[in-house]
Specification:
CATH class of the largest domain: Mainly Beta
Helix content: 25-40%
Number of helices: 3
CATH architecture of the largest domain: Sandwich
Strand order of the largest sheet: 7-6-3-4-5-2-1-8
Strand content: 25-35%
Radius of gyration: 30 Å
Structural class: alpha+beta
Number of domains: 2
Distance between the termini: 104 Å
CATH topology of the largest domain: Immunoglobulin-like
Number of strands: 8
Largest sheet: 8 strands, antiparallel
Length: about 170
């Protein structure tokens, strides 16, 4: 018997669709896996602070300085605009105006969006500092004087560029 090979066509492997299907499945899983790794590292959660125990123990001290703000009836109205940041400090009890106050706007979940501003006293409870360029989302506003004698902290919405922080009652 003689074999007739004239009716068999030999095509190169790279022209067969099944070969490309077998290559495409693992290649696509590698590409998608690398994309997931990049997304995971780009949006990683903030890590727990190394001194978490010490921070937990200092909560009572933090509550004490918030009680001082409550006792004096301190409140702060602040405004964020393109030129500067302005804050007006009010107190029901006469207090000595601190030379500087720190306004910290902390995003509840994204630490990258936190802003900390130092505002200088201009007279009569008015404080001015650099522009914040804040995105207008809800944030936790913390206001402390330069001597850390009292503190105000409250969740605020700064969508209009203005907000008020009062001592908790």
């Amino acid at each position: 018997m003689s074999r007739d090979s004239s009716h068999l066509t030999s095509t190169p492997w790279y022209k067969l669709p099944i070969v490309w299907l077998m290559i495409a499945i693992p290649a696509s899983s590698i590409v998608l896996g690398l994309a997931l790794v990049l997304i995971a590292f780009g949006n990683a959660d903030d890590v727990v602070a190394d001194d978490w125990y010490k921070q937990g123990r200092s909560i009572n001290r933090d509550l004490d300085i918030e009680a001082v703000a409550q006792r004096f009836g301190i409140s702060v109205d602040f405004e964020l605009n393109d030129e500067d940041t302005r804050a007006h400090l009010h107190a029901k009890t006469p207090i000595a105006w601190p030379e500087k106050i720190e306004l910290a706007l902390r995003h509840p979940t994204f630490a990258k969006e936190d802003k900390v501003l130092e505002l200088a006293h201009q007279g009569d409870g008015l404080y001015v500092g650099e522009a914040a360029h804040y995105n207008g989302r809800d944030s936790i506003a913390t206001i402390t004087p330069d001597n850390k004698y009292w503190r105000l902290q409250h969740r605020v919405s700064v969508s209009s560029g203005k907000a008020t922080v009062r001592a908790q009652e």
